[in-house]
Amino acid sequence: MQIQPCGPLRGEITVPGDKSISHRAVMLGALANGTTHITGFLMGEDCLSTIDCFRKMGVEINITDDEVIVEGVGLHGLEAPSEALYTGNSGTTTRLLCGILAGQPFTVTMSGDPSIQKRPMGRVMKPLREMGASIEGKNDNFCPLTLFPSELHGIEYRLPVASAQLKSAILLAGLYAEGQTTVIEPAPSRDHTERMFRALGVEIETNGSTITLNPPEDLHAVDIAVPGDISSAAFFLVAGAIVPGSELTIKNVGVNPTRTGVLDVLRDMGADITESNFRDEAEPMCDLTVKYSKLHGVEIGGAIIPRLIDELPVIAVAAAFAEGETVIRDAQELKVKESNRIAAMVAELTKAGVDVEETDDGMIVRGGAKPHGASFETYKDHRIAMSLAVLGLAAEGTSRIDEPEVVAISYPDFFNTLERLGD
Fold first, then answer.
1. Strand ranges in 112-200 using DSSP code E only, listed in sequence order
2. H or E element: which one contains 343?
3. What is the rounded average pLDDT of the residues 33-60?
4. I need a surface site. Which of 149, 261, 346, 388 has the fewest CB within 10 A?
5. Closest CA to 417 of 23, 142, 12, 69
6. Would the pLDDT of 314 be above 70?
């Protein structure tokens, strides 16, 4: 696909529903008593993988034009699948399902695509085993994973890294454990699981960095409105900030404080971003308006990293158009995403003439010289593909994106939305 530099981006858009919340809505809806109606659900490949897995375990899930309807089977109503569960490219599906499957009375095998089969699962397996789970994996770290029936008990577990996937896997296993389950975070990570638990009647307490769950007798179905995904909005926030003359509004974006690091960083860089129409239901959301502005380099690291880990590739693009040096550190987690996102972005920004240097835990981007178009590789990673497309909008000359179809994982209509804004 070719990307040409464009004139001002103007208009109003909505972005797909939040991927993290969409996954959890299906999972917890399946385990609840009653019917869950999910609006704003992300119809991307990752979330459809979650639906497929639960259908294989006997959960009736219907998709209409405007909602997903989950007929819950209760905490103990899942059935043994007749075949292995396939999680596609979805790390969230794979890791969170580990927590749920650890407490089931049947044996189940789970695997995903070649990318998932390279992503480490050992750090999820370790606490689940401490809870009593019987789980095996290739080389004791990779998919395929097989989970066997076992009796679980609550533990207190200090996370080695701030990871919402790891935290959620432990808390989901805690639904089936005897006694309390406590997770201690080194820094706050996204708290969608805890919020949804509370909405469904689970007794869960957050005290600073400590989250404690008391296992419930059952979950009570509630309707769930999924806000727009701030990770998807981030591409347009950066595009609006770096394409001269732009002004665009992104409607109904989730602004959960554990996810808004991208707003903090872009504003620190000088981006003109305003919020309006704020409302707070189970998840807070608002409309975001971004205008073109001159950006400058910043340092990004420490506790803010878990709040913007998925947005760092496109933040690196913003840094390429900013004056001065941007340092991204403490971001080792980027190495074990759909691709090694540090190496990928350094390689592709270098093709565009950006002065960028890879470090052990991040990168240093020295802005000032306008990037030029190039033939970019996506590494089969949706966020890399969309980040490089944003770069192409403001670069000099034509850019080419290989395998653009990978954006279907989280944002199937991404390129159509870009084209409409450019028009």
1. 134-138, 142-148, 152-153, 156-158, 177-178, 181-184
2. helix 341-351
3. 97
4. 149
5. 12
6. yes
Distance of CA 231 to the CA centre of its chain: 7
CA angle at residue 292 from 286 to 298, to 5 degrees? 85
Both tokens of residue 21? 């919340």
**What is the Cα–Cα distance from 48 to 41, expressed in whole angstroms?**
10
**Predicted confidence (pLDDT) at residue 423 exceeds the cutoff of 80:** no
**360 included as an active-site residue:** no
Q: What separation in angstroms does the CA of 323 have from each of 192, 365, 367? A: 35, 10, 5
- At 318, the amino acid letter reads A
- How buried is 177 (Cβ within 10 angstroms: 0-12 exposed, 13-18 middle, 19+ buried)? buried
Q: Give the pLDDT band (50/70/90) at residue 60.
A: very high
CA–CA distance, 195 with 170 (Å, rounded to integer): 15
What percentage of the chain has pLDDT greater than the value 70?
Answer: 100
For strand 181-184 and strand 210-214, is the pairing parallel, antiparallel, or unpaired?
A: antiparallel
CA distance 177 to 151: 7
Q: Measured between alpha carbons, how far apart are the two ends of the chain, in Å? A: 17
pLDDT at 339: 87
Looking at 310, 355, 360, 381, which residue is catalytic? 310
